[in-house]
Amino acid sequence: MSSSTLQETAVPNRGGRPRDPSRDGAIRAAILRLLGEVGYNALTMDAVAAEAGVGKATIYRRWRTKSDLVVDTITEMQQAGFVVPDTGDLTEDLRLILRSLVAEVTGPTGSAALSLLSSLPHQPALADAFRAGPLAGWRSALAAVWERAEARGEVRSGTAHTAIAQAASALVVQRWLLTGEPLDDDYVDTVLETVVLPLARAAAPA
Fold this sequence. Notes:
The protein has 2 domains: 3-75, Tetracycline Repressor, domain 2 (Orthogonal Bundle); 80-202, Tetracycline Repressor, domain 2 (Orthogonal Bundle), CATH 1.10.357.10. Helix content is 70%, strand content 0%. It has helices spanning 3-10, 21-38, 45-52, 56-62, 66-80, 90-105, 108-116, 124-152, 163-179, 185-202. Helix 5 (66-80) runs parallel beside helix 8 (124-152) and helix 6 (90-105) packs parallel to helix 9 (163-179). The protein is elongated and about 65 Å long.
């Protein structure tokens, strides 16, 4: 296919049948699976179409380029976001949200994110989407848990934006990215009991 033909095919279709949201979801799921398997550089529109079970024209009607497609998928990860727990207790809220984080990073979303890390310095749009997407979602959800604990008087005001609040997620992300050690619910419990909760107790109002 010539570059001019590709450009014509790639222009989003403004008419015809409306977009089918179920196809968008299938395409995004296919992207996450393929990113985890082959990485960003080896990802192709043909492979995405085959994995999603749609025609390539269906993809080009929605996204002009591979970068557009991946950026949109990353942005959608923020909109899905975490359900922020509100049990009325900081310990249980942290346990639930950190277990959700572990489930995310050890699943297809985490595999896709790992595959993108080496491309982010060379793809500014991807880097911006990643920061504004999943990273922003994780930070916002965790901050909400600590802010609710502040409102209940479990910790001092302002704790949500200190290293104390960041310690738990930092240890999870470190193990995910760097050490290769098991990352599961037992590790979450260990982090809470030995690191985060002692720090939280130290930050309790006098």
